Amino acid sequence: MEILLLKLCLAPLLVVGSTVAGRRWGADVAGILVGLPIVAGPILFVTHLLHGPRFTAGAAGASLFGLVALAVFAVVFARVAGRSGWLVTTAVSWVAVLVVDAALSFVRVWTVVAFVVAVAAAAVASSLMPPVGPDAGVARRPSWDLPGRAVATALLVLAVTTASGALGPQWTGLLAPFPVATSVVAGFVHAQQGAPATVRTLAGVLLGLFSFAVFCLLVAVFVERMGGVAFPVAAAVTVVAQLVVVRVRRWWWGKGVAGRW
Asked: Transmembrane residues, as ranges (predicted)?
């Protein structure tokens, strides 16, 4: 019962919190927050409770390849959003994610190598994002907006954890970073504010993937030695890593160096 409540409450609350923060500080901030392991973290923690540390270590290592699929999702969603509605855009992006996950499910490498691949994928994806056009402004949001995001997130988390738990650590890890929160946030932004705000949100997601990769690496390496304590430790280091990434981005822009991220 406790695990079910964790699935139904933690990730949706984090998505709602990210949405509220994005409304105050901008779409890119919302993207950075949902690009953090706010869904994959709870999924891996539930996996630890259900299947133990060894299974979780394998899943966390595989999650690094799942981040490659998440980077592909961001690029595909941003590119398709300019020509299609939110439903078609989400469907096409999910297909792209599953194709990449299926291809990477056959790859076995050291965890450190997978970490390097994930970081490289985030950097390459950032360079492939479309330019941001004029903002359409903030649309009037319906009263059910935040509850709708929470319910959508809870249903997707239930679907992913139910499916992945029966498929072993490799697919559990690949599906843990499945764009649950990202799909919900990007879909709502696309429907309410248009493609430019969606691109900004997804650019923030890609920025969050660098520290997301740090989280997966630390859990994969330390969960068998530290047990559940590895999760708060990894989360704390992830927050520090994200602050460093954001500061580096500001320095990068301040130097006038070309690049979208």
From this structure: 31-50, 62-82, 102-125, 146-165, 171-189, 201-223, 229-246
Model pLDDT for residues 28-42, shown as the tens digit of each residue: 565 566 656 777 787
**DSSP run (H or E) holding 162:** helix 145-165
152-183 per-position pLDDT tens digit: 667 766 776 666 566 777 777 787 777 777 78
Instruction: Write out 103-135 in H/E/C secondary structure.
Output: HHCCCCCCHHHHHHHHHHHHHHHHHHCCCCCCC
Cα separation, 151 vs 10, whole angstroms: 12
Q: Which of 16, 40, 41, 42 is nearest to 30 (CA)?
A: 16
Scored b (16 or more CB within 10 A) or e, 185-210 reads: bbbbbbebbbbbbbbbbbbbbbbbbb
What pLDDT, on the 0 to 100 scale, is given for residue 10? 63
The letter for the amino acid at 109 is V
Compute the distance between CA of residue 190 and CA of residue 74 in angstroms, rounded to an integer: 13
Query: What's the pTM?
Result: 0.79
